[in-house]
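re: that chain from earlier
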Amino acid sequence: MTPLSAVPSPADEPARIPVRGLVSVDDDVAAVDDWSAAHLPATDPEALLLCALMWSAHTGGVSTEDQRITAIVTGDDFDTVAYRRLFVVIAALVAAGEPYDPASVTAAFMRSGSGGAKDAPLLRRLNEVITAGADGFTATHYADIVLSQSYRRSYRTVAAAIVQAAEELPEEYLFDHLVEYGRAQRALWKRLNAFRGQQ
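^ sequence. v structure.
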């Protein structure tokens, strides 16, 4: 069986996730519950990166590879708001040389006042990430995927900004606006290749 033969034909594809199911987790609790029903952390590179980082803490303290990952990947590389918040906490613990295993990350959220009902969806995401099943030694692999997906998503953002500029900016600013975005995209491409080059 070839990899493509496992891909269902369009007629066999499951029904699409309703748009409501794609709302970011900060919108409201109902949106988080809808999102949960259609989302599997065990197949999400963002969740698997977070899981791998937390479990890599058991492989011998703060590794230089975890330091490299958390120095290059940023919270903005995460499409899911809850995962972005989790990454920021993990990265801060790594940078401080503090433990960043699941219990320590959970404790960091509790110390920051995230233990109440308001943050229950976030803590539920944390528990799902902890049990996503990533091995501590796979953090680099998942970081590469997260950076790649972030780079690709950035083109959608740029496309929307260019359309808006075409409608709203004076003519004399249009080309400079385009060049500015081009430079930003080149910087993101160089960052992705630099990460891959250091593996």
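The chain is about 65% helix and 0% strand.
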